[in-house]
C-alpha cells in the first residue's frame, strides 16, 4: 500500500481531498457531456440526417444544456459534494441555476459565432464550437460549485480554501463587476441579435444588399462604404446576417464601456445597470437590428462618446493609450461621416468632447493632429472606398430642388422655369406632372418617389437615380426661381420641418415588406413580440418617438449655463451635436421618419442617464454626510467614506475636480 509522502501530509486538508472532488466532478461532467452532446446531435441532426431542431442549432444547444443541467445537479449534489449535502435551500438552487445559465450562454455562444459570423453549419463545426464552449463552461462550473454552490451545509467549512471569501471580497470591492456587466451585455446582445436575425431590411437596406451581393453596381445613393463592408462580411462568412450582428455587437460593446465608465465614476451598480438597460429602451431597441445608414452613424457616434467617458477615468500618464483611443475615436467619426453625409455637423462637437476627455489641456499641436487626422481619415477613406467599389453617380442631391420647385411654384411656373433652365419638352412635362400629382394627392415632400412619373423598370439597373440632364435642370430652376419666392420657400420648408418635429412616423421597421428578398426570413413570432413592445410604448408615450421632444432636450442641454457634476462639458456637447444634426433637416427634410432623429434620441437618452447619475450620487453623498453628522452628535466614532469618487463637502456637495 502506498504511503503518503511528507509533502502530502503537510499539505492543507482541502488539497488532500480535492483530487476526489475533481475525479467525481469529472465523471459527472463526462456523463453530462455525453447526455448534452448526444441530445444535441439527435435534436440538430437526428438519425435521418435532420433532427427536429435542425434549422435552429442554437435552440438545440440550449435544450441539450438544460438536460445536462439535471444530470449535473443530481450527480454533484448527491455524489461529488455529498459531504456537504443538506436540505435544499433557495440560495443553493439560485446559485446553481445562475452558474448554469452562464454556462448555457458560454456553450451556446461559440455555436452562434460559428453560424452567424463564420457561416459554418456542418456537424463537425458545430461540435467543435460546442466543445470549446463546454471546456470554458466546465471550468466556471467547477470553480463556482466548489466555492459558492455546495457549501452551505458542510460541517467544518473553515478548512475550505479562501475561494469563497476571495470571491466575496472581490464582489464587494467591485473587481468582478465589470466582468458581470460584460456578461450581461453579451447576453442582451445575443438576445437582441436573435430577435432581429438575420437583420431587418428596408427598401434602402435591400438596395445595399443587392450591391453587396453584386446583383447591382454600387451607387452613391446610399453609402458605398456600407455596401463594401457588407460585401466583405458576406465573402468572409457566407452569411448576410453578419451585418446586423456586427451593428448589434457595436451597440452592446459600447454600452458596456459606458456602464463601466459610469461604475468607475459613481461606484453604483444600479446606475451602471441603468446604463446597460439603455439598449433595451423601446426607442433604442426598435432599430438595433435594422441594417440602415442612420443606425450605423448613430452607433459610431455613440462609440465616440463611450471612448470619451472611458478616457476620463484613465489615471495620469498612459500616453500611448490616449493616442490609441484618439485614433479609434477618429476612425468612428470618419466612418459616421462616410456613412451619412449630414453627420458632419453632429461630429463637430464630439471631437472636442474626445479631445478634452483625453487631455484636459490638449494644446495646439494635439488639436492640429486631431483635426488633420480626422480630415485625412474621411478623405482617404472616401478615396479608397471609391477606388475599390467604383460607385455610379446617381445625383441624389437633386431630390431637394425637386421638392422645392414642385411645391413652391405652381404647375405653370414649373413649366416656365423648366423651359428657362433648358429642359427638354419631355422633362418639362414630367416636372409639371410631378407638381400636379403632389397637389392632387396633397403630398408634402419626397416628390421623386411619390409624385414623379417614372418609366417602368427605371430602378432595375442601378436603382434610384437622376440623369445628369435632370439634375442640372433642377439646380438651375432652383437657383433662378427660389430667390424670387423667398416667402413661399420659407413657408414650405417650415411646414416640412414642423411635420418632421411633430408628426414623425416609422417608429418600428418590421422584418418583412414587399421588396424583401426570398432568402431573408425572419422569425414572425419574435418580430411580432418586438413590434408589440415598441408600438405599445409608442402608443402610451408617443413623445418618446417625436423629434420635438429630443430637440427640446438637446436645447436644454446646450443652453443651460452650467451642469453640476463631472459631465458638464459632455452634456452641453451632446446637446449641441443633436441640435446641429436636427437643424440640418430644416432645408432638406424628405420625410418625417423617426430614423432622422435616431442619433438625437441616443444622445439625449445618454445625457438623461448621466444627469440622473449625478442627482442620485449627490443625494447619496448628502445622506452619507447626514448620517456621519448624526453619529458625531451622538458621540459615536465616525469615519468618512474611503471612496475617492464620493462628494463629501459638508455644505454644498460637489463632484471632485476634473483632471
Q: What features would you describe in this structure?
A:
- The protein has 659 residues and is an all-alpha fold.
- The protein has 26 helices and no strands.
- The N and C termini lie far apart (68 Å).
- Residues 153-161 and 640-659 have low confidence and may be disordered.
Mean pLDDT: 84
- Rg over alpha carbons: 30 Å
The low-confidence parts are: 153-161, 640-659
Structural class: mainly alpha
How many helices? 26
Distance between the termini: 68 Å
The count of β-strands is: 0
Helix percentage: 55-70%
Note the beta-strand portion. Answer: under 5%
Main sheet characteristics: none
What are the secondary-structure elements, in order, as H or E?
A: HHHHHHHHHHHHHHHHHHHHHHHHHH
Q: What does the overall shape look like?
A: globular
Short description:
The chain has 659 residues and is mainly alpha-helical. Helices cover 68% and strands 0% of the residues. Mean pLDDT is 84; it is low at 153-161 and 640-659.
Amino acid at each position: 500500500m502506498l504511503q503518503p509522502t511528507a509533502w502530502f501530509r503537510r499539505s492543507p486538508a482541502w488539497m488532500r481531498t480535492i483530487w476526489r472532488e475533481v475525479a467525481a466532478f469529472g465523471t459527472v461532467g463526462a456523463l453530462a457531456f455525453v447526455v448534452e452532446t448526444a441530445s444535441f446531435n439527435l435534436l440538430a441532426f437526428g438519425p435521418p440526417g435532420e433532427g427536429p431542431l435542425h434549422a435552429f442549432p442554437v435552440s438545440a444547444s440550449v435544450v441539450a444544456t438544460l438536460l445536462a443541467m439535471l444530470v449535473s445537479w443530481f450527480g454533484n449534489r448527491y455524489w461529488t459534494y455529498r459531504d456537504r449535502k443538506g436540505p435544499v435551500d433557495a440560495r443553493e438552487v439560485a446559485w446553481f441555476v445562475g452558474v448554469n445559465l452562464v454556462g448555457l450562454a458560454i456553450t451556446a455562444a461559440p455555436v452562434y459565432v460559428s453560424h452567424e459570423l463564420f457561416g459554418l453549419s456542418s456537424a463537425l463545426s458545430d461540435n467543435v464550437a460546442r466543445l470549446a464552449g463546454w471546456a470554458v463552461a466546465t471550468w466556471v462550473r467547477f470553480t463556482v460549485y466548489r466555492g459558492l454552490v455546495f457549501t452551505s451545509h458542510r460541517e467544518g467549512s473553515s478548512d475550505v480554501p479562501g475561494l469563497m471569501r476571495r470571491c466575496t471580497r472581490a464582489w464587494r470591492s467591485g473587481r468582478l463587476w465589470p466582468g458581470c456587466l460584460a456578461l450581461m451585455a453579451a447576453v442582451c446582445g445575443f438576445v437582441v441579435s436573435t430577435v432581429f436575425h438575420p437583420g431587418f431590411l428596408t427598401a434602402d437596406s435591400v438596395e445595399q444588399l443587392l450591391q453587396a451581393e453584386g446583383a447591382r453596381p454600387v451607387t452613391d445613393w446610399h453609402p458605398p462604404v456600407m455596401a463594401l463592408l457588407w460585401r466583405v462580411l458576406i465573402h468572409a462568412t457566407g452569411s448576410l446576417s453578419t451585418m446586423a450582428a456586427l451593428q448589434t455587437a457595436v451597440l452592446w460593446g459600447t454600452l458596456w464601456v459606458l456602464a463601466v465608465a459610469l461604475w468607475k465614476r459613481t461606484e453604483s451598480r444600479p446606475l451602471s445597470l441603468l446604463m446597460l438597460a439603455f439598449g433595451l429602451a423601446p426607442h433604442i431597441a426598435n432599430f438595433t437590428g435594422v441594417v440602415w445608414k442612420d443606425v450605423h452613424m448613430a452607433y459610431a457616434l455613440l462609440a465616440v462618446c463611450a471612448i470619451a467617458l472611458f478616457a476620463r477615468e484613465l489615471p495620469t500618464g498612459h500616453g500611448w493609450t490616449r493616442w490609441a483611443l484618439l485614433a479609434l475615436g477618429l476612425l468612428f467619426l470618419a466612418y459616421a461621416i462616410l456613412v451619412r453625409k449630414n453627420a458632419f455637423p453632429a461630429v463637430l462637437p464630439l471631437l472636442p468632447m474626445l479631445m478634452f476627455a483625453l487631455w484636459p489641456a490638449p494644446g495646439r499641436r494635439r488639436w492640429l493632429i486631431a483635426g488633420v487626422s480626422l480630415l485625412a481619415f474621411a478623405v482617404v477613406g472616401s478615396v479608397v472606398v471609391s477606388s475599390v467599389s467604383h460607385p455610379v453617380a446617381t445625383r441624389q442631391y437633386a431630390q431637394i430642388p425637386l421638392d422645392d420647385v414642385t411645391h413652391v411654384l405652381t404647375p405653370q411656373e414649373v413649366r416656365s422655369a423648366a423651359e428657362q433652365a433648358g429642359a427638354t419638352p419631355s422633362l418639362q412635362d414630367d416636372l409639371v406632372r410631378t407638381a400636379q400629382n403632389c397637389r392632387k394627392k396633397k403630398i408634402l415632400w419626397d416628390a421623386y418617389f411619390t409624385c414623379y412619373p417614372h418609366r417602368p423598370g427605371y430602378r432595375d439597373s442601378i436603382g434610384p437615380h437622376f440623369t445628369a440632364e435632370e439634375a442640372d435642370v433642377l439646380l438651375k430652376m432652383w437657383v433662378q426661381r427660389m430667390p424670387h419666392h423667398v416667402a413661399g420657400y420659407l413657408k414650405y420648408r417650415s411646414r416640412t420641418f414642423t411635420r418632421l418635429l411633430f408628426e414623425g412616423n416609422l417608429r418600428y421597421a418590421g422584418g418583412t415588406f414587399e421588396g424583401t428578398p426570398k432568402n431573408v426570413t425572419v422569425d414572425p413570432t419574435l418580430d411580432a413580440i418586438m413590434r408589440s413592445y415598441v408600438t405599445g410604448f409608442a402608443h402610451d408615450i408617443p413623445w418618446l418617438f417625436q423629434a420635438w421632444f429630443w430637440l427640446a432636450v438637446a436645447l436644454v442641454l446646450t443652453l443651460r449655463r452650467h451642469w453640476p457634476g463631472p459631465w458638464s462639458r459632455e452634456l452641453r456637447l451632446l446637446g449641441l451635436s443633436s441640435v446641429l444634426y436636427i437643424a440640418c433637416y430644416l432645408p432638406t427634410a424628405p420625410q418625417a421618419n423617426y430614423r432622422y432623429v435616431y442619433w438625437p434620441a441616443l444622445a439625449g437618452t445618454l445625457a438623461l442617464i448621466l444627469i440622473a447619475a449625478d442627482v442620485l450620487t449627490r443625494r447619496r453623498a448628502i445622506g452619507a454626510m447626514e448620517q456621519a453628522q448624526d453619529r458625531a452628535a451622538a458621540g459615536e466614532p465616525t469615519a468618512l467614506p474611503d471612496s475617492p469618487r464620493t462628494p463629501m463637502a459638508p455644505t454644498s456637495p460637489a463632484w471632485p475636480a476634473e483632471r
